[in-house]
Structures are given as C-alpha cells and as structure tokens.
Design goal:
- The protein has four domains: 30 residues; 191 residues, FAD/NAD(P)-binding domain (3-Layer(bba) Sandwich); 106 residues, 3-Layer(bba) Sandwich (FAD/NAD(P)-binding domain); 108 residues, Glutaredoxin (3-Layer(aba) Sandwich), CATH 3.40.30.
- Helix content is 28%, strand content 22%.
- It has a five-stranded parallel sheet with strand order 4-3-2-8-19, with helices on one face. Strands 10-17-11-12-13 form a five-stranded parallel sheet, covered by helices on one side. It has a five-stranded mixed sheet with strand order 20-22-21-23-24.
- It has 490 residues and is an alpha/beta fold.
- The radius of gyration is 26 Å and the shape is globular.
Length: 490
C-alpha cells in the first residue's frame, strides 16, 4: 500500500512538473522581452504587417483594420495574387461570375476604405529572431526599406512551376507563357498546347478554347486531378483535345517563335513532333518561402509549418494561403485563413499588452511613401501611343533611343512593371523616349513587333532599329543599364 502511494505521489509530481514546463513554454510570450508594458515601447514599430496582397492578405487587412489596428500591407510583385490570372471565378459567394482581377480590386478598395496603407514593394528579408521583428523590402528602384513590427501575417503565396526542358527559357515570352489572360489573345485562330492535369489547366483551356483554333492538353498521368463541372464543359468542345500519359520533352522554334514540340507517350514508349504556336504551363506551384529559411519551420517542399491554427513556429507570426496549403489552393480558403490569422493576431497583441488606442499610429503617418496602384499615371516624359501614325511620327522625329512598353490593363505583371517604367521615363527622359502601347488597342503593332508575351520592352536605337528585347518582370536597373548601353553605342 505504501509503495502504491509513493508511485501515485511520484506520478503527480511528474505531471505537475511536465505541465508546469508546458506552461512556462506557453507563457514565454509574457516575459519582459515581449511584454510592451514592461519595456520602452518602440514608437517606430507597427502593430502588424501583412506580407502579400492576395485574397488572403487582403482579408486579414480588413479584419485588423476593423478591429482598430492599423496594419501595413506589402503587396509584393503580384498585387491581387494568382487569382488575378483567372478570367472567370464562379464559386465566390455573392458573385455569379467575376474575373479574378475584378474581385481582387473590389477587396483592395475595401481595405483602402478601412484605412489600410498599401506599400508597393517586395519583401526580401526578415529577422524574426528579435522582437519587435524586422522586415526589409525593396521598391521598383531597389531602394531598401526597413520596418519594425510586433506581429506579422505571411500571405506570400506560391509561384508557377516550370518544365525545365530545352527551348522553354529561350522562347519564354515568345510563345511560352503561364498566363492565358495575359498572352492568349496573341494566339487567335492558332494552335496552342496546355501542359498540366489540374484545375488550373482546365481553366486555361476554357479561356483559350474561345480564342485559339485548337487547344491540346498534355497530361502526364492517365487522369485529370479535377472533377469540376467546368472539366466536362471544356472537354466537350470540338477544338479541345486531351493527351493522357504524355509529356513534352522539347520546344523548338525559328529563333523568334515556337514551331513545334517533341512529346513522349508513356504507353507506346514513342516520341513524335507536333506543330504548335504557343504553350501555356499549368503544372503546379512552389511556395515563395525561400527568404524565410532559417526564420520559420518549413517542410521539405518549402511550405510553412503551422502549430495552432495559422500560427507558425514563431509567436506572433502567422501564415495563410498557398504558402502553407499544398492541397486546397482556393481563394475562399485563403480568405478564411486570413480572417483566422487576423483574429489570432489581435489575441497575440492583447496578450503582450498592446493597446491599439494608446499606441495607435496616426493616419497622417509619413514615415513611408505608400502608393496604391490603380491606373497608370501619365508623366509628361511618358508617351501613351494614340495610333500607328503617332508612332511613325515619333520614329521620324526623335533623335534618341526609344523604349517601348507593350502592355495590357488585364496583365498583372504589366501592372507591377508600370511604376518602374514610369520612374524610368521620369529619370531618363534625356537619354531615351518612352512609349507605352496597349496590345489590346494596337494589335497591329503587337504583330509588327512580334509580341507574343507581355510585358515586353523593346529598345530601339535612334534609327528605329531594335537592339534589345526584355520580356516579363524585370528590375529598374536592368532597363536602366540597357538604355545607357544603347546611348554609349550611338
């Protein structure tokens, strides 16, 4: 009996010690290093910073703003997130059919109405080892900004995967793309291929089937990874064909555009060439978490590991959307996670003693120059082309190199590059003439300059001869260097 009592006593002691240790770990957050009431508050620290301007990040911003906090939202290179590439969203509550771009813009308008400040920059580095946490970002001119924050919501999403086959890099923007809404109109009445077997491949096919002469879908497996109603609609179209158990091994062209692809059939173990004018990739995503390595716990594939709901391995740091969810990549799920993360953020701030009224950042805070990108701002140094005759006059009269930005209002990468191009025009107007051409309004000029992907930057010498072409998102310094090089050769 005495032995039994000793065992019970020892067991109780063990349980008390164990739970006590757990409580110590849990309550580390209220230690002097984290409790605002026990330290001098750093007035330069924001209550919360949201990294990423997709649907999830926008939702977090709404919740935090309405809770009385003043979050900063850093948009990143793709305002609105990957959803902006979808021309048709039919499963968003309250919307029968809406484009992803329109949906993101509506939510962004809502956060601005709630007083959220939006920073048009990209986060390049974080320091979550000390508190308040530090976040470094850069703008279009590579100017570095350092911000301090008490909490952070990471909504950086994921980027499209690539085939990594011969010809892909060489013909990127010249027939190879991962955005049908950006580049699909260049392939009207032409033959295009879609590579991928998921929902995104079906969405691409749905859009392109209304433009292209023929749409070929290449799937490596023997089935599609989607059971949506849209799948049946797409596959029933006369100009859509699907090839299962097939992979694309090589892309070939004439140096300016794609001509054919080499495909391999797993069943017959044979290869053959197929004539194709354009290729659209829909082969999954990789989380944008490289800069978080060593700061947060990541899984082997780079997805952020979560502990309690949206909380990461670091207290006060939360993550949502495609950067944490490798399976359910849906905007509505990101929005829900964004709401959860925002609520958890408010709980964390209350736990450490933060008082949103006492430490509220004034709305007239001028520490950062924050702009919201809506429509392109016209500078006197920047020419918005009217028609072909207008371009002919510029080519005839200018004695400078010419830089042309082929873009579209529907293209999110174009939207990201717009302020960069505008700054170049403002800074280097003595070195070159800067022109913007909307490919939707000037398809004849897009065809003349062999544009098959946007944004495309065509650099001409003073004689109007093309000397360089830069396709896709690029940095200010790359375009700046190219302009200086052309001037040196004049």
């Amino acid at each position: 009996m005495i032995r039994l009592e000793k065992k019970i006593t020892l067991a109780c002691v063990f349980i008390l010690c164990f739970t006590g240790c757990l409580n110590i770990k849990k309550n580390d957050i209220t230690s002097p290093g984290l409790n605002i009431n026990k330290k001098t508050f750093d007035a330069d620290a924001y209550s919360s910073i949201i990294i990423g301007g997709g649907i999830g990040g926008l939702t977090s911003a709404i919740y935090l703003a309405q809770a009385g906090y003043n979050p900063i939202l850093i948009e990143g290179p793709l305002p609105g997130g990957n959803l902006t590439g979808s021309y048709s969203v039919k499963n968003w509550p309250g919307e029968i059919n809406i484009t992803g771009k329109k949906l993101a813009e509506k939510i962004k308008t809502q956060i601005i109405e709630n007083g959220v400040k939006v920073l048009q920059q990209e986060v390049i580095k974080v320091d979550f080892t000390t508190w308040p946490y530090e976040i470094q970002s850069k703008d279009s001119a590579n100017k570095i900004t350092k911000l301090k924050t008490l909490s952070c919501i990471i909504a950086i999403g994921a980027k499209p995967n690539y085939l990594k086959i011969p010809g892909e890099k060489e013909y990127w923007g010249q027939g190879v793309s991962n955005c049908s809404t950006c580049d699909g109109h260049f392939f009207k009445n032409k033959n295009v291929a879609i590579i991928g077997g998921g929902e995104s491949a079906i969405l691409e096919a749905s859009y392109l089937s209304n433009i292209a002469k023929e749409v070929l879908i290449f799937v490596r497996k023997n089935h599609l990874k989607t059971n949506s109603k849209l799948k049946d609609e797409v596959l029933s179209k006369n100009n859509v064909k699907i090839f299962y158990n097939t992979k694309v091994k090589k892309i070939e062209g004439n140096g300016e555009q794609i001509i054919k692809i080499l495909v391999y059939d797993y069943k017959t173990k044979t290869e053959k060439y197929m004539k194709i004018d354009g290729i659209f990739l829909a082969i999954g995503l990789t989380p944008n978490s490289l800069f978080l390595k060593g700061q947060l716990n990541l899984d082997p594939n780079g997805y952020i590991k979560l502990t309690n709901n949206q909380e990461t391995s670091q207290r006060g740091i939360f993550a949502i959307g495609d950067v944490v969810n490798p399976k359910f990549k849906q905007a509505i799920i990101s929005a829900g996670e964004g709401a959860v993360a925002a609520i958890q953020t408010t709980e964390f701030l209350e736990e450490v003693g933060f008082n949103s009224q006492k430490y509220q950042v004034k709305k007239e805070d001028n520490r950062l120059e924050m702009k919201v990108a809506n429509k392109n701002t016209k500078h006197k140094e920047l020419i918005i082309l009217k028609n072909k005759k207008h371009l002919d006059e510029i080519l005839k009269n200018t004695k400078q190199p010419i830089v042309i930005d082929f873009y579209s209002e529907y293209c999110e990468p174009c939207k990201y590059m717009a302020p960069i191009f505008e700054k170049l025009a403002k800074d280097l107007y003595e070195k070159a003439t800067f022109i913007k051409i909307d490919v939707m309004n000037h398809s004849n000029l897009a065809h003349q300059y062999r544009i098959q992907g946007i944004p495309s930057f065509i650099l001409l010498d003073s004689n109007g001869i093309e000397v360089k072409r830069i396709i896709g998102i690029t940095e200010y310094t790359n375009l700046e260097q190219a302009i200086y090089e052309i001037n040196e050769k004049q």
